[in-house]
Each structure stands twice: as structure tokens, then as C-alpha cells.
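Archive entry. Fields below.
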Amino acid sequence: MATRSEILLPPAPPRPIVWLRQNLFSSPFNSLLTVLSLAFIIWILNAALRWVLLQADWSIVFNHPLLYAVGQYPREALWRVGINLTLLSLLIGASWGCLGRALRLFSLLYAAMLAVGILWPAQFETLTLTMRLALAANIGVMGLGYLAGRRPFVTGRRLVLSWLAALAIALVLLSGIPGAPLLPLVPTGLWGGLMVTLILAVGGIVLSFPFGVLLALGRRSSLPVVSIFSTIFIEIVRGVPLIGILFLASLILPLFFPPDVRFDRLLRALAGLTVFSAAYTAENVRGGLAAVPRGQEEAAMALGLNRYQVLTLIVLPQALRIVIPPIMGQFVSLFKDTTLVSGIAVLELLAVGRSVLGANPEYVDQQAEMLLFVAAVFWFFSYLMSYASQRLETALGVGER
Amino acid sequence: MTDNNNEQPIIICRDVHKWYGNYHALRGINMEVKKGEVIVIFGPSGSGKSTFIRTINRLEEHQRGQIIVDGIELTHDVHNIEQIRMETGMVFQQFNLFPHMTVMQNITLAPMRVRKWPKEKAEEIGRQLLERVGIPEQANKYPAQLSGGQQQRVAIARALAMQPKIMLFDEPTSALDPEMIKEVLDVMVELASTGMTMLVVTHEMGFARGVANRMFFFDEGQIVESGTPDEIFNNPREPRTRLFLSQILTH
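PREDICTED_STRUCTURE:
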């Protein structure tokens, strides 16, 4: 019998051979299953890799990098997109420097994305040497941003303000200012591709989140008008499919404005996506609000905090922490739902791919390649968001007391 | 706010009734508490003791009768309620510390936001209070990292940080492991010795005997009997009081 002073260590983990024998080959039936599964996996991998590397013709993807990236954006105005990209690289680097390890993988993946652009397998007329060098320079800019971000004058608050300022600058640069000699107007009808997908997704997420929180609070409000309006809004929006909301946004929004003001198509799409996502976010937040123990509110009230302070300082921080998983899931959904805006004539990434396919007879049997490429891009960004969500959950202790 | 000389009771309850739907939880409570008194409220569960103490700071609303705290009447007037809550501190059975803030942040939150004190003053008061309750080294920890007894002591410090005139305790030791009850009771005894007006709902009869000025026995929403600890323990008049005391004093 062990005395208190002896230390017993738990048994060591088994060596690999032993592990294999215990888990994969523990009985004749299991061994058979293992062998069959291995054969199946090898067969699939073999067929897939052979197709991808040898049989597939990826020219539909490789010949049109700019279309997939920015759609029909005038090629002579691409320098404006370039500046935005530089701003983005700088801010990503600075955020990495300021927040440290948490953003390391994110920044490296961003650099990998730029590397894909630099090494794009197409001729230099399609993606010029200048552009590739610009992309390479962006990696350097990100590095500079990182170094700057580590200095003390870059605080979290200044970072947030910089992001917001950059967003505003980016939109102004892209659309142009009427009458400015260097920045002629570029109608949003010409914007397209991954740029539009990202604008809609980021804009939708950033706008729908506060809107959703307000709706959730409104639904729980003790004022009947507010609570009834919020409930009706949420239930109607949740009851209509997103494509329907987008059509409605497309048709109804112009009615609110005088007839000669043409309500921008991209803004209509953004409005539809925001409204849709806000309703779902509201329900998620409402669940979180209900999960905060009533004693928290009571303690805050007993201390003399007013209703607004109780909400913003005590209840909401705890509620939002609880619902990070479903809210991030909602954001990933929103990102993928941006493909539906092709229904109201906004050319996002998938629509660009399909129009390239339709307009060029020589690509007629390359549909699979195009779809796989678009799917890979979507997967890449969705995984990025998923990963960020997991890191956020660990950092904030979701699921622990 | 009326000027309060030392003869006016700091808490006056006249004929206080409360219903939950059709259930009559408080049936005509009359009580007067003088400044500096330590009142212990005890009784079987469901007797309305917690409900009563929670009506004092409007966590529960009374439907009939008057409650006057420090000269301010407790009505639907939000301003009155806010004033009263600034002058009453409450300690809960479940501690109710804010889990997303450190101990120091828990304590300094209300003084900074409600009394509008600057951060340095609030933190200085916070440090003194943590010393007073015996855990100055825990200032930067999160509540989840503390034991139950430590958390309840932080809760007491948090309530005291607002420098209230009255402290309300709703079964402060009922959720604690037995070995931690003493450390919390010690803090409460020290608090009583400094002259704080305290209303304590508790089953800890040792505490009552040692520190209480008066005790009130609640049963079925009414005050059955009241008196000094001497009177209650040695000479309970009502049979219900005698029965209850015999049940809880045998172990």
C-alpha cells in the first residue's frame, strides 16, 4: 500500500506500435475495417490528386486573377485597390504587434494569401510584374506594421480607431469623389469578385452585430411598443428566406428616397444582409441574456447602479461571452450567404466565376475547376473565422465558470 | 431628505404587505430599527424573511404599507429608490460577485460609477476594506479563484465600499462549507462593533446571541415574536418560537 510520501505517477502513454495494436487492430473485425478504410482513403486520395494535378485544366481560374479579385473594376484605377491593400497589410501587422501571439497564425495566413498572388501561375500580361512586386511589398509592409505595433504608443483603442478610419478611407478611395481629378467616380456596378464578397461580409458583420444586440434588448424591454416592434421585426425577418429579403431590400429601399436618387445596388445588398443577420444575432443574444443569473442584476442594482449601467457593465459582457460560439457561427453563415446577392445583380466571387464560365466557350468543361477554386477560397476564409472564434473562446473562458 | 437625529429610527416599516400573485408572502410587518442596531431575523423557510429584507432596497416591491429608510419613503419614485440603494448595502447568500472583473474591480465599480469617486480614491478605500476583511493579497484575482469564504468577504467589502448606513445580509453563510462560516461571521461581528446598522437573516444562533440587539422570529409572513437575544433564548413566549428554537438548537 502506498504511503502519503510516495508519489505514484500515472501509467505512461503506450508506444506507437502498441497504440496501433490497441486501437486499430484490436480484433479481427477491427483489423479488417482498418484495412478496408485505408484502402478506401488511398483510392480516393489517388484519384483526387491525379485529377487535380494531371487531368484538370485550371485555365479558367489562372487566366483571370483580376476578375476574381476585383471584378470589372477599371484596370487603370487599380492603384486605389492597391492602397487599400497596403492599409490592410499595415493594420494587420500592427494588430499582430499589439495583440501578440493571438494573431500570429492569422497574419501568417494573410502573408500566404499574398504569396499565392505573387506566384500566380499565369502570364505576366494577366498579372503584371508590377502587381506581383506590389503584393510582395505588402508582406514587407505587414512586417513594418508588426514592428510599429509592438511600440507602446499603439494601444488597443487607437488600433480600433485606425481600423474604422481605414474602412472609411477604403470606401472613399474605391468609389471616388465626384470632381476630384485623381479619383474619378467608379460606380459600384463595376465592383466585383472577392473584394465585393469581403466588403459585404465585413460590413454585414460589423453592422448587424450592434443592430442585433439592440433588437434583443428591445424584445426584452418592458415598454410594450418597443418589445412588440422588436418581436414582429425578428419573427418576420426570420420567416423569410434571405433571397427574399434581398429582393425586398432591392425593391423597397428605393421607395424611401426621392425618385431620382438611385439607391446604390451594393448598399441594397448590404442592407438586406445586415437586416437578416441582425434578426438571427438578436435571438442568439437573447439566449445569452437569459443565461446570466438573476443574482448578477440584483447585486448590481443593490449597489445603486442604474438600469443602463447594470446592462452595459454587468449583464451584456457576461451574456455576450456565453454566446460567442453561435454568434461566430452566424457570421460564418453570413459570409457564405453573400453569394446570394448575385440574385440582385451584384457580382460577388461566385457570380464572377459563373459569368467567366458562361462568357467564354473555351471553358465549357471547366465548371468543376471553377467551382472547386471558389469553394477553396470560401473554405479558407470560413476556417479563418472558425479558428478566430476558437481562440476567442479560449481567451475569454467560454464554458468555464 | 428629512434631517435624521439619533432618536428617529433609521428603518420604519408600517403594515407592510406583499403578494406574489395570490400568495400572501408578507402579512402586515411592523418594525422599527434604530441607528446602530444589529437585528437578527430568523424563522423556517418560506416564512418571508428573505422577501422582507429584499423589500427594504426594492429588490422586491411591497403592495401595501409604508417603508421609510433614512427618512426617505420607498415608493415608485425612481429617485427615492436610487437614494435608498446608495445608503443600503446588501450581501447575498450566493455572493453574486461579478465573474468577469477582478476583486478590486468588483469593489471599486459602484463607488466610481455611482458616487463618482476618482479611481485612486476608490482603490485606496478598496485596499483598506480588503485589509479589514482579511484578504488584502487577493486584490487582483478573479472571483472564481477564491474560496467561498473569501468570496463572501469580498462581497461584504464590495457592499461596504459604498459607505452605506445600513447593511442587509440575506443568509450570508448558508452557502458556505462549515469551516469557512467562522471567517465570515468574524467580519460581521467586527462590523457590528463599529456601530453599523445591520439587518441579518440567518440561522447562526451563536452570532445572534453574541451580537444582536434584537431578534425577530418570522413565520408564515408575520412577526410572531421579537425581543432581545436573552428574552428569545431563555424565555420565548410563543409556542411556535419555542418549537422552532428546539428544532435548530439541538445540534
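CURATOR_NOTE: Residues 84 and 204 of chain A are 19 Å apart (CA to CA).
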